[in-house]
Amino acid sequence: MADKDLDGVKPYEGPAGGWGALRAVALAVRGQMGASTETRALLQMNQPDGFDCPGCAWPDPRHTSSFEFCENGAKAVTWEATAKRVDPAFFAEHSVTELWSWSDYALEDAGRLTQPLRYDAASDHFVAIGWDEAFARIGGAMQAMTDPNQMEFYTSGRASNEAAFLYQLLAREYGTNNFPDCSNMCHEATSVGLPKSIGVGKGTVTLEDFDHADAVFCIGHNPGTNHPRMLGTLREVSRRGASIVVANPMRERGLERFQDPQAPVEMVTLGATPIASTYHLVKVGGDAAMLKGMMKALFAADAADLAAGGDGLLDRAFIAKHTVGLEALQADIAAIGWAEIEQRSGLSRAAVEHMARIYWSAERVIICYGMGITQHRHGTENVQQIANLLLLRGNFGKPGAGICPLRGHSNVQGDRTVGITEIPAEPFLARLDATFGIASPRAHGHNAVEAVAAMRDGSAKGFIGLGGNLAVAMSDPEASFTAFRNLDLNVQICTKLNRTCLLTARESIVLPCLGRTEQDVQAGGVQAVTVEDSMSMVHASRGRLKPASDDLRSEPAIIAGIGRAALPRTVVDWDWLVADYDRIRDKIEAVFPDFFDFNARIRQPGGFRLRVGASSREWDTADGKAHFLVFPSMDEDEGRDDGPLTLTTIRSHDQYNTTIYGLDDRYRGISGRRDVIFVNAEDLAALGLEHGDRVDVIGPSGRTLARQTAVAHPIARGSVAAYYPEANCLIALDDYDRRSGTPSYKSLPVSLRAA
Length: 755
Ligand SMILES: Nc1nc2c(c(=O)[nH]1)N[C@H]1C(S)=C(S)[C@@H](COP(=O)(O)OP(=O)(O)OC[C@H]3O[C@@H](n4cnc5c(=O)[nH]c(N)nc54)[C@H](O)[C@@H]3O)O[C@H]1N2
Ligand SMILES: Nc1nc2c(c(=O)[nH]1)N[C@H]1C(S)=C(S)[C@@H](COP(=O)(O)OP(=O)(O)OC[C@H]3O[C@@H](n4cnc5c(=O)[nH]c(N)nc54)[C@H](O)[C@@H]3O)O[C@H]1N2
Ligand SMILES: [Mo]
What we know:
The chain is α/β, with parallel strands linked by helices. It folds into four domains: 16-80, no CATH class; 85-175 and 441-536 and 547-591, Rossmann fold (3-Layer(aba) Sandwich), CATH 3.40.50.740; 189-405, Dimethylsulfoxide Reductase, domain 2 (3-Layer(aba) Sandwich); 645-754, Barwin-like endoglucanases (Beta Barrel), CATH 2.40.40. Helices cover 36% and strands 16% of the residues. The protein contains 31 helices and 31 strands. The strands form nine sheets. Strands 5-4-17-16-15-6 form a six-stranded mixed β-sheet, sandwiched between helices. A six-stranded mixed β-barrel has the order 24-30-27-29-28-31. The protein has a five-stranded parallel β-sheet with strand order 11-8-7-13-14, sandwiched between helices. A hairpin with a 2-residue loop joins strand 18 and strand 19. Helix 1 (18-32) runs parallel beside helix 3 (71-80). It is globular and about 80 Å long. The site of one ligand 1 has 34 residues, from helix 10, helix 19, strand 24 and strand 25.
């Protein structure tokens, strides 16, 4: 008999949003901040003159709307604007060894950092130091490196364009392209895969396109939790009568029905709007088969239509004028059989044909996707199959149509745009060098997996983290913890304490920075920063709150301080640039022509949209065409033994990546805990297990996540799901997409054993 534990497990019957969301906001505010600042801060979020929400990258209606309510945006703000502080007294009381035993939740919940810290090995405590000493120590350690490629410059996607641009300048003047970044664990498959298909590694739609789409597909993303403001958009799509088709291994409440807290009638009558018109529980890792199956059905229907004297279902004029590669794609699709499609996708032929019919019956289609598509060994090919499907019916560059990757961090897309990349293109480096008079290195650098491997193996010796919590976000904590502990220098620029800060190196420095919500004053006065959302809209963000401590510095100012200290012969006037961020923006404009009139255009309400060629059928590929690309397989886990079950890792409703706000996952019916694994009831029965049994989850090479409670859940047969980051111990560091470097966080062969 396995031992059972059903505490806090109870199915959730309500819609997404609604009064539960309002209640959660009230609790978050009460738990983290004083009443005086809360309303002001929340009301200034995503306003023409306020700060950009540090939550997700979903755009706002021109940043001119009245306050758009979002529970998880409110959690992100209250978490940052908390009244709690970790001050020198806190660090005098708690040694690093003691803090290591705290949970990730407790570490961040302790509060905002207030001044620079240095690890003192003799006492095993962090001690407060001044900024000059911090910069001098960092500069000394960086100058002691024998090769600039021994340094890793990590970026998490909350950094502003201005901070990210200065950061890449610092690293390139220092002499390396080692830019591991959170995007490497997230939408790298998009950044690498889409340019080959359509010439740009970004989404092609704008918010307005959702007003014109006849069908919207949502594949592998969970908007109710991760982009809650998108539910408002999907609600409108649904109310217009357009189709919303979902492919997701789990039933996610936000994709089923939504009670809009901004819609008084819905709130008062406890009504809700249905979201998905069709919901398919595709198997984890079954998307390639599903997408190829949809294309197979489309080709068959097209041939039948032609045979019956019709014009066919493909957009042949578009294909002839704009694309290459159709024949190869058709040959590849013709070679696959329905039995394999059904087996790999977990969907019946009828279900796949039904999805395909909705697709070809719609004149204008948007396909949205998230981590369910990208975080696989063949994430890049998955993204390209989505592009193929859209190209077949000319669903690019017309109103209401296009591809819509749901980006992660609020400025992860902007950071890439302004030069955070380990594989920089030559024209960009040439302009950077000409603008500043530096000689950027040409050799490609490390992505996130490569950086951790280099640190583990000892070839990288120094790390700076501009935000983030890499050691916890990365797969294989054993490898990443060892990697960080090997270092000569570990610098963390952050707002709150996290586990990566506690992985002490020979020299460990924590530098506390301003958050998005806080006022940023430099020599030239009050500053604004800029960010780019998921739809390539760039706009200004101005924090208004009083900083958590008088001793915080902005991210640009911190980077400038490191630049001065680490580069004794620097040709960059760091202090001059940081005195007035308009000057940084002028330099961004000089390096990236798409930012013409940058300072003028961000002063317009709503900012401006960066050029996305594919949005107007301009394909920035070598031959100027869009490309159909073949994935000659449907096995997303090629080259790996199949386990009896495939595990995916997901976010709870109460977390922001490695930041755990609380222990509830309301829409999945979990409260007060995270030690669960979601399993299909029939799979449980077949394994001789029951709802509530304690199980060990066994991954490749015997890696084990012990004592999870198996929860019966509406999830595809053969698929199981557990929370990130707890499940990262099951994933090996070298388990990643060979094209994009993205860890395969979303498909791991596992088995379950009664604990
Ligand atoms: N509140 C909040 N907001 C966030 C974040 C957060 O942690 N909290 N994180 C931010 C970041 S960095 C990112 S990248 C985004 C992440 O946003 P999402 O992409 O929505 O993130 P995940 O929670 O990883 O969820 C993926 C969804 O994919 C499904 N899925 C899992 N495996 C598969 C598969 O093989 N195929 C398909 N079709 N679906 C699958 C899961 O059931 C789940 O619904 O959100 C951003 N916004
Ligand atoms: N198994 C599994 N692993 C995953 C994923 C998954 O789906 N499954 N998702 C992956 C994805 S999509 C991503 S993006 C990564 C996330 O990886 P990261 O971006 O590295 O991690 P976060 O948890 O977002 O970083 C949180 C830390 O950022 C700091 N911080 C917060 N705000 C600010 C700020 O304004 N400035 C600065 N300087 N610091 C700040 C805080 O100190 C906080 O502790 O994780 C990846 N890991
Ligand atoms: Mo992400």
